[in-house]
Every structure is written in structure tokens, then in C-alpha cells.
Amino acid sequence: MKIKGHFDRRGFLQLSAFLSAGMVLPQRLSFxxxxxxxxIRSDSDINRLDPxxxxxxxxxxxxxxxxxxxxxxxxxRKGNTIAPWGAEKIEQTDPTSITFTLxxxxxxxxxxxxxxxxxxxxxxxxxxxxxxxxxWKYQFEKLDKVEVKDERTGIIRLKEPFQPxxxxxxxxxxxxxxxxxxxxxxxxxxxxxxxAQCGPYLLDKWEPKQKxxxxxxxxxxxxxxxxxxxxxxxxEDDQAAQLAYEAKAFDYCRVSASSAKxxxxxxxxxxxxxxAQSTRxxxxxxxxxxxxxxxxxxxxxxxxxxxxxxxxxxxxxxLVPRSTGxxxxxxxxxxxxxxxxxxxxxxxxxxxxxxxxxxLKLNLATLNDxxxxxxxxxxxxxxxxxxxxxxxxxxxxxxxxVLGDKTQGDGYKNLELVLMPFAGGIDPSENLVWFRxxxxxxxxxxxxxxxxFEELYTKALSEGDQAKRKTMYNRMEDLMEESGGFxxxxxxxxxxxxxxxxxxxxxxDGYPNPVGFKKL
Length: 520
Fold this sequence. Notes:
Elements: H1 9-20, E1 37-42, H2 58-66, E2 71-73, E3 82-84, E4 87-94, E5 97-102, H3 117-128, E6 143-148, E7 153-158, H4 180-185, E8 201-207, E9 211-216, E10 229-234, H5 238-246, E11 252-254, H6 260-265, E12 271-286, H7 296-304, H8 308-316, H9 345-354, E13 360-367, H10 370-384, E14 388-395, H11 397-400, E15 417-422, H12 428-432, H13 451-462, H14 466-482, E16 486-499, E17 502-503, E18 518-519
Parallel strand pairs: 1-10, 13-14, 13-15
Antiparallel strand pairs: 2-3, 4-5, 5-7, 6-7, 8-9, 9-10, 11-16, 12-15, 12-16, 17-18
């Protein structure tokens, strides 16, 4: 391991404990802040940086640095407000039209010239085109076209009103603008080599499974970032990442919820603790198409055998409430309560008896992560009280995220139970989109297929009355629970630590935006 700079005895002892525990750090982790350097921890590496095909996490953090969106969101702790970013001016002129004028001076690397409305048109329409099979096509499913008016001005035309466009489409994954000429030259899509960049930072170097390094873009015409260089190092394990922070390897680090209590009782020097409610939601998928779970009574028995309070207390230190759906608690669209909100082991046993099922054994798939393994062990213990035997099957990230992917073969049909975490959005539609019928064999691993759900989803996108939208979304969550295909667990607490010399910017998905980190 190559270690830059120096660190004190405390750092040395932390690092020694870290290594003796058999934990692995990236080989080129920096152990002292050097001048204008900001060091951030990520828990996963990149796979595809093309906004039309990215998965998220570090990929979107990267695109926030090296590409531009028309608008940007504020820190989640400041209300998720929207402000112009790549657009000098942007306004909704009528329910189906948004006019924008690009910031002057936006320029692509590689000699591709200025960013133009033609680039915006290309970026949005390629995602909306079903032939491209972008996972983010729902963000532009009401898009008609983007009209190019002149070298800096364009109009986004919608087929009908689309309520989520400002918080779901424009500032996030699908909203990142790519260079039409550069992407077409690359063959119409790309993976980890960005053909042209235009953002506050430029990607300087990617060391797979180790680190990404960014440097400030001297040609960026907008507000300059406070840090001249950013390093994002990949450490998958939360405990390992916290030890690395304590050894002064990071300036900002997300940590496990279970660490919060200890960090409050014994605060780290020169460190601020952040606790917040994230939009990352967790639920238990019950595959309705699996022969063991075809009978609704069996699925309902599983629901009655679930103890949400024990799971949240044991996994998340009781920092968050039990979720009543995939919509974030405490918002205007939150469902009042779960239909089955407490365990009833005798009821579960009775339902299994009515279904003629005894000695029910189910496999529970999960990410091989300490928090999710803890949650699964609690599920295993509580469901045993209803006579249900749970076998836990942990998977590493690469294998886990394709378990329900029909393009990988018929294995998705054999899933039984899966503990699933998703990074959610601000608008309810972003959290509910994954359970539409067209997502079966993609992300809808419950095989939930409800025509009423699909009809409500489509109507709610255009409904301007927020009370009516709430009624629609709550009914959709009722349908999910009534199907027996889902158990809603929680929206995970967000816990992070950072140096007191700056204030981080964290977006609603819980991922940092290095561009918005401000020195104090």
C-alpha cells in the first residue's frame, strides 16, 4: 500500500486495526489532505457512465462533476429546491412547454465546441426513445420533442402535463446533457470513457475498484467549485470506511446507521456528524410467480410473520420509522399506515394451514452487506415463530443486481424472497415506476402485474391537484401490499461524518455532490 503524506499515532493505530481485521483499502488511498484536495468515500465502482444507461451511485456522482444539467437540486437538508444550472434562464411557459436558454460559455472538451440546444435535444430524446431501452426512459415518457430555436435557446415540448419533470427528469440521471457529435462518433453510446465533458470538474483518472480523480475545469463558465481536486475512493464496507476516516484517509464518509450512537457518545475530533432521513427505501420482495408463493394465503402469512419494529431497532438503531410504502415518510404523499402493520404469528400459522402448507422453507436473497445481513437474520428469527424457515443467501453486488434480470436467463423466475434497497427520488412516481408491469424481469422482482396500478401511475403523472395525486399513489401502495408481493420496511437513515472545515452538499438520493461542497 502506498500512503501519501503523514498521519499521527491515532491514525496509525486505526490503520493497524483496519488491516489486522483483514479489511482491504484501495492501494492508492491518500492519508493527508494535500492543499486543495477533497477526499470522499464511495461504496461502489462505476460500470457505465453514459447517462442513458448508468446504474447510479458513483456513476451519477461522476456525471454531476463532468456533465451539465439544465437545473440543479439543493442539499436534501435545505428542502430540495430547484435552481438554474446549465440554463441561464428556464421557465415553464405553459403546462406542456419549458423554454430554456443555455448559460453562455459552456464548452465541450475534445474540440467539440459549445454546448447547444441540439445536444439537449439529442440527450433527452435518446433516453425517451423506447428502441434505446434506457432504464431512465420513464423520466421522459411524456416528452414529445425538444425544439431548437437558436444557438442557445430551446423548448421542451411535452405530450401532456408531466408533474415530476422538475425534480425527477431535469436535475437527475436522465437530465445530464451529453455531446451529440462526440457520442455519435463513439457509436451512439459509451461505458467508462466519456467522449466529451463539460462540467465544473474533468475526470482526470479512473483506477478500477480503487479511485476516481477529478480536477477543476478551467473552462467552466459557472460558479467555480471550492476544491481544485477531488478524489473518490471505493471502500465497500461501512465499518472499513469509518476506520479509514478515523485514520484520516477521507474528509467525507457515509457510515452505517449503527455507528451513529457511538459517534454521538464519543465525537471524533474536528468532525461533524450528519443524521437525516434519506429517500433510500428498503422492502421485502415476495415473488408471486414462484410455485411456493402462488397462493395468496401463503404470501399473506409471510406478511403477518414480519416484525418491522424488531428489524428497525436491530438494524437501524430505531433511527427511522417503519415505512408505509415506497413513498418517503413525513411527506405530503405518505400513506397513513400499512394494512398489516404488526406481526401476528398465530394468524400466519392459520393462513398456512388453510393453504395446506406445512414446513414452509424460503430462500431470502440479500446483498452481502453487514446491515442487510443483520436485517435478514432478524427476519429469519421472527418468521421462525410462525413456522417459516428462512435460508439466507448473500450475494456480492455484481451477482445480486442481476438476480431478477430476465436477460440473464430464467433464474429470475426462481426467486422466492429478496431484501431490496433502492435509492429513491423526491416525487412518488420515481419510487413507484419500478413496479409497473413492464418492469417484470427488470426491477419488478415480485412479478406484480396490476392493470389498475398502471392506469393510476399514468394518470398521476399529469394530475395537477396534489390531493388527488396523493389518493392515487396511496391506492397504488395498497394494491402492492394487497397483492402479497411486498413488505415495506423503511427509508434508511442517512448517517455521514465530515471534517468541520467545509459543508458538504448531499442530494435527496443520499449521494454527495462534490461540486457543491463549500469551504468554511
